[in-house]
Amino acid sequence: MQLNDDVITTTPRPAATVVMLRQAPELEVFMLKRHADSAVLGGAYVFPGGKVDAADAATPPALFDQATRQLHQALGEPELSPEQAAGLYVAVLREAFEECGVLLAQPSSADAGAQVRALIAQGQSFAQALQSVGLQLQTRRVQPWTRWITSIMPSLTNKRFDTRFFVTALEDQHTAVHDNVEATESLWIQPRQALQDYWDGKLYLAPPQIMSLAHLARHTTVHSVLQEAASRPPPAVMSAPHTIDGVRMMAYPGDPLHPLPKRLIPGPLRMYFRNQRFEPEGGLDELLQG
What we know:
Helices cover about 30% and strands about 25% of the residues. It is α+β, with helices and mostly antiparallel strands.
């Protein structure tokens, strides 16, 4: 894991990530292993997601199962236009389809995904392909969960993103698989086990994934996660980097060294870059504790 020391002043690029959940019978989350040659987090395990495309915000309102004003309200970001908010929903649903073959659209059919994929291969956009097949996006199936904004000193990349994390419960008719292009492996795993495997050196995780898994580890059911998501606006989290005794430290809201005094998410308030990875002062127990 290579630590970045550059200060990046560019505006964070909008992105969207989907945290797919299932009860099997314990709470599990779907993760992809990024291709080792990827420019961003190569070899890391991540949730499916990516950058927002220009076409996402131009998606016709008729393709949504609810009004764009409702999507805008759910995100809790009044500075966004309704079209920008809707574009984030399109992006997360598009990434779910592109990266792991999960098409959250209605009416569902066995061959709808194949039809959409074929039309995209012919040059149509995601929205155009949906229109051609007569599908409508199931935006109600995804709920805003958290928002992660890369700090001006990114930890592991030289890029900045403003990423909205959405949660969804994957139903039996949907099978998530990696695309063998951007991702080379995938797995369903309990959040606590993912953190244990990270600690044991079996998984490479970046801080937003570590903290998100620590957050999910406080839940035992998919219903509980969705219930929390519906109960509050998504917290916007940006770490504050510091160097203490020559060690990079990232402070999170609620830590005395962070400009925001109120804790926004559960889990550690500080992560230190030690042993070629980020870890809290209290070790694995601090990640797992309820």
